[in-house]
Amino acid sequence: MGRQEKIALSVVRAIIKTSGTNKRSRNPIALILALFSAFFSLYQLALRKVRPADFARLRQKHWNVSDDDYTGSFQTEEDRSEEESLKPIGDMGFSGSTFYSTADQKYLVKSVPRYSEHSFFSEDLLTPYVQHMATHPRSLLVRIFDYLAASGSSIGRMLRLTPSHHIVMDNIMYGRAEGEQQGEAEWENWDLKPTSYFYPERDIAGGALTSEATKDQLADEFRDKIILRPEQAEDFFSSLEADTKLLAEHNAVDYSLFLVRRRAPQHVSSSMPPPAESMMVPDTGPPLVPPSLPTWRTGVASADGKYIFRASILDFFWAKHKIQPKLMTLLIKLWNVLVSKHGPMSITTTSDEYRERFLELCRSIVEIKEDD
């Protein structure tokens, strides 16, 4: 069993722990052997749920997801082993995070390997996040269904060979595989953040010192418009205002808007307003869960009837007051003084300034279509 499979197995067992497992752990000899094995493990860590009651309350009370449905996504078929219920997506981005998808595509598991990021979420943002998501049903912040952390010491954890923290979150690309199998056009997606900041990979020597693969991991650009009716735009902007206010209050920067676009099932001519029923997107399972009205998680139909859009705010774990961000801020300030003045990076600016540019970006990709 390789590294990816052992990490997956650790996550699955943390999600679907049974009472039988707990009973076996009471045997002293079994407990000693388990602790010994865990300490010398390189990749398979003993994970625990952090604040399980809070996340269970969000799932059940506010998101209408039962425990049976939730854990069912992590269950295996008879001909598969436990770790096969999670499919590795790969290492993505600059953070070194690993990604997995449940076999049914409903949930993603993302590792949070940096101490500055998982300590920020644990110590600063977790409680405000839970409260915000309970009181803002139309929030664009990605829905986190569980937060897992390693318990106890191990060689793999000390050597940082495997991530010690993971989040289980919504997959707003859910339904793509099924749709494309039914002949739908390929779904498009963009990871959007302000591009006017200083990006060393792009801006030093015109990007000649960095590979194209590295530069491809920078923020995307959406070279089109989301055409919305006034009430749709108001819903979008008000959610963005509330969500980014929370993030700015807790010093978060460098988050992004993940935007998904697919063709509407029944194309409506742009010369005619779409009928009311075409504005509705059916809720058929996570992330398509109540509220029944269209949301940016379930899919909002564009005012011209051509597309269905989904959107979510991701990667809000980078906070300016943590040690690593402070060091990066100092380095960029020195660079601007001693080498060349480029201004701040998206990870070294202030949270209020980042929020302002992020909201400006989001407004710039929307075109409002007034009712005829």
Automatic annotation (TrEMBL):
Gene Ontology biological process terms, A to Z: phosphatidylinositol phosphate biosynthetic process
Transcription regulation keyword on record: no
TM region(s), chain numbering: 29-47
Gene3D superfamilies noted in UniProt: 2-Layer Sandwich (3.30.810.10), Phosphatidylinositol Phosphate Kinase II Beta (3.30.800.10)
GO cellular component: plasma membrane
Transmembrane helix as UniProt keyword: yes
PROSITE patterns, per the entry: PIPK (PS51455)
UniProt-recorded name of the protein: PIPK domain-containing protein
Phylogenetic lineage: Eukaryota, Fungi, Dikarya, Ascomycota, Pezizomycotina
